[in-house]
Amino acid sequence: MTLKNNIASLILGIAVISILISIYLALVYTPSHETMGDVQRIFYFHVASAWISYLAFGVTFVAGLLYLKSKDLKWDTVAYGSAEVGIIFCTLAIITGSLWGKAAWGVFWRWEDIKLFITLVLWLVFIAYLALRANAKSRISKANLSAVFGIIGFICVPLSFAANRIWQQYHPTVIATSRGSLQASMAFALVVAVFAFTFLYAYLLLTRVGIEKMRETIEEIKQLIGGQNV
Amino acid sequence: MNAVKTIFLKELMVEFRSKQMINSYFILSLMIITSFRFAFSVIDFSLTQLASPILWITFFFGGMFSLSPIYKREIEQGTREGLLLAPISPSSIYLGKFLANLLVISCLELFTLLIFFVFFPVDTPDLLALLTLVAIGTIGIVALGNIISAISSNLAQSEVMLPVLLVPVLLFTVIMSSVSATSNVFAGAHLLDVMQEIKFILAFDVVFLAVGYLLIDYILED
Description:
Chain A is mainly alpha-helical.
């Protein structure tokens, strides 16, 4: 337990330090964007949250597969924790994107842009994932059904990522092979932001899984002493 | 393959005996089309532009609600255990149910299409393209609808959970591509012009069928 706590503290430490560095890089170090100005600085956190939400849903997908293969409930807890943290990062990506959109496009949201729409749907898919878990009738059934649904829901992720590349709409494409749209210092700040958010995600996931395990232990103890399930 | 055929025939027999799905589909699609007709009777609108979303939303909701009893009735009538104890793989249960529902829903959709053309008299589009799109879109609806219906039949509040789980996944994959392709067809495009979208929808069909075929085992087991 202490080793686990140490690892969690270490990850938290790296996350805090790298987030501070990333704030400095995004707000001070990088130059102002030539057309968008300072508004563009939100981009580092927007892209980082979006990528981490994809990563989190990817972890839900992989943990779902591992659960179905091994029937070990540990993987189900990981899938659940990751989906919850992913929803938070997806919400952040949508909010930061809307703020940027208000400044760059003049509106918070463009319904005609497929990337925005699919990302909203991705968010809804994992809200539905939580609703599924809330309505399951037994622990095993909850794990089985949510693993299958997490696998189906994951197909939104590649689509959400690739939408602006397939349909060519308003949402800017960051990683374009034909033209280097990012300056070196901006790319560096982006990498640091993604790195920082990855550690933040890892810490949140570890903590969430820990809480879920404790909750399950408490329920087992309650069963043992013959108390009512609350 | 024999098992798939048996389940296929069994599903059709159960359906024609109770007519649960057929009745609810008829009434529901009529209601939806009438509601849309009512909603657009008071404003000026372009029939060609609105035809495609209205048609697909009708197919979507009709298909969704008629698929809701297909696993639930096995539980309610106590035939689920028998089905699972039978010496056949769960994948063939899925495939048999998929094929039977595909047949029934496709026939119902043809009928809906007729009502639709009466209520919304658009210029006759390229029928080959329209029917191809309806056919492959329906495969997607039924393939995913089958999986989600099996999932929601094991949940509390299954009637609410079916749309909650199905709407986000189906809407942005099959329905979105079908709506944009069908809009083009209503605007005068032919089969070859919408090939890109057709490939896209077919890809989703294959993914949903594969997921259902491989994972139905885990859904049915508990």
